[in-house]
Protein 1
Amino acid sequence: MATIIEMPELVLEKVIAFLDFKAVLTLRQVCHDFRNFIDDLNDSKLPDSKFQEIKFVSDDRRISFGLEESKKRFTCISYSKGQRSFCGKTEFFGYSNILNVAVRDMEMILKFQKTILERLQFEFHNVQLYGGSLVHTVPIKLSNMLQKLNRNVKTRTLSIKTNDPSPIMQILRFVDPGALKTIELSSLDGKMEIEIDEFAKTEQWKKADGIHCGFNVLNLNLEDICHFSSCSITLNSITAQELDFLRKTPQKTSDFSFFCVVLSLLHGLKNDFWTVDRYGKC
């Protein structure tokens, strides 16, 4: 008697098309034949997971995914000590390859995502993972995976929290600029300073509607932020000419619904803040 895996490929494709994301992942773990068949399927033949938000965190010697389908439906997958926990089940993989398991799962999750995400969030904490994998290798592996995915991730908001600027470009360049509306960049300890001139050259930056930077920005060319309808930037210093430019910019740009540049002047424990509102008033 023929086994289910010996059924015609067209029949198996129809079966998988009727399953949801979790059911296909479960089927993928049944045997090597199912895993290979599902992994080789064209993305268009996989069901849409329809996630609203995907959150990837490397923190406290572990990696975790937060998958939000709706406000009332939330799934968490965690990886630590060489094991993966998902839907009440734990699998053991060994310390040496748990990072590879997590990245491979992230690739599978993104393959299932057909609709545009509301938010894609990454947090890269300064920790060392089990098996000797340093935290800076996590965004590198993610970047390699996104390149292998061979299509940009569609999300309206991209949020990256890190104390190392390198993951920002490694992730940003693989986000679909046509879908991206808001870029949120922040430091986990509030102390990071970063040069953003390279980010400003990307299509993602140029086509986004809003930018919010929760760290001190260096080498800022004010012309690179004039197209944003919502902008929050922290600077260490600013010239009188630049303040005058900011004052006039909202008046010149018709779609400038809100614009805010924060200037933090540190004098001991004292902070002074300047803002430019949508009416060009400083």
Protein 2
Amino acid sequence: MTVEFLTTVFGWMTVLNIGFLAFTTVMLLAMQNWVTGVHARMFKMEEADVRKAYFAYLAKYKTLTLIFAVAPYLALKLA
């Protein structure tokens, strides 16, 4: 594997992960009441707890994307 190939792989991985994160965030904001109600009934949780779980999910996904996709891409671009 060459550095150029790895840079391309991490670049596309970054684009896909940030795209998925943005899509998920927009969908949760746009359909918040409906999705919250569905998941609250599905998992027998309070709606406030479901909203906290969404926030934790988005925060963890963003952190993992930064660590495992963006950081290696930037490191390879600078190398």
Protein 3
Amino acid sequence: MKLRTAILALTACGLSFPSLADINLELPYSAELVLVNGIKKDGNEPLVLKNGENQIAFRYQDGYRENGEYQLFKSDVIIVKFNGEDANYRLEMPKLRNEMETFKFNNNPSIKLTDNNGQTINFEQDKLMKSGIQFGRDYEAEMVAYNLTDNAAAMKSAAITTLPAKVNLDGKQQGENVAETMLNYWYEQADPATQARFKARINQVQ
């Protein structure tokens, strides 16, 4: 009997431990994940994240009916960075019902992060943007570059953690530090005209 009681107690502890030691984030059906802490991720299943600082990137993706026709809306990639510890959070976004609402949302995404009590949680928000052709984007590399900036939703720890593996996979030249490696990477990604401007700017500094 004592052994059975001990096993049941251990099992109960094991089942409850994840909810006490992690951040559980529930996503709305309209959120389509792109990255979680700099790593590629898709879907919108609930996330279990480490305590501390976290960063997710996602799109608002949903349909609406206007003038009798069904329209599919897919937003720019939205970045959200927040801190938490041993908590359950919910990401909330509005239901968009027409083209005007989708236009306004894409320009200025209206997002809320709340806890179990409905209290609003502070977070930083931005968008992961790229000019030019959008097909075949490398979101992991783009996020590394973004996380090396001073933008509000940047997470330096994610850039340092994800950069070496990503660059090695792409076969790009490694630098002596993170900044040099990223310069090498983006120089190789640029078109000839951009590379020429880049070199001209370096020569001016020298």
